[in-house]
Amino acid sequence: MVQKLFLDAKTMAQDIRTTGRVALYGIYFDFDKAEVKRAEDVVKVLTTQFRVGAWRLKSYGVCPVAPVTSNKTEEGRAKNRRVELVEQ
């Protein structure tokens, strides 16, 4: 599977300013896994490939306790497969 993630820093910054968070889609994880390593890998990609300062990021795996919609449909499950950047 090839993963493509298009980051628009201006849009992301605007979303964080207005809502305190931004959801990123296009970063995928192994099915039915909830290991913290998944959140740590996102930080690694953001710091190495996109040059985000490591001091700005903390990783948490909260998928099971923070869905944005119901998991009863494939569309809902797809929306819940996301990475969120949250202002602290």
- In terms of DSSP E residues, the strand content is 5-15%
- Mean pLDDT, to the nearest integer, reads 80
Rg, Cα atoms, Å: 13 Å
Main sheet characteristics: 2 strands, antiparallel
Architecture blueprint of SSEs:
Layout: H1 9-19, E1 21-24, H2 36-48, H3 74-80, E2 83-86
Antiparallel strand pairs: 1-2
Task: Give structural notes.
The protein is an alpha+beta fold and 88 residues long. The protein has a single domain (9-86), classed as 60s Ribosomal Protein L30, Chain: A. Helix content is 35%, strand content 9%. The chain contains three helices and two strands. Strands 1-2 form a two-stranded antiparallel ribbon. The mean pLDDT is 80.
Offer a quick outline of the entry:
By secondary structure, the protein is an alpha+beta fold. It has helices at residues 9-19, 36-48, 74-80; strands at residues 21-24, 83-86. The protein has a two-stranded antiparallel ribbon with strand order 1-2.
Pick out its properties.
88 residues; alpha+beta; 60s Ribosomal Protein L30, Chain: A; two-stranded antiparallel sheet; 35% helix
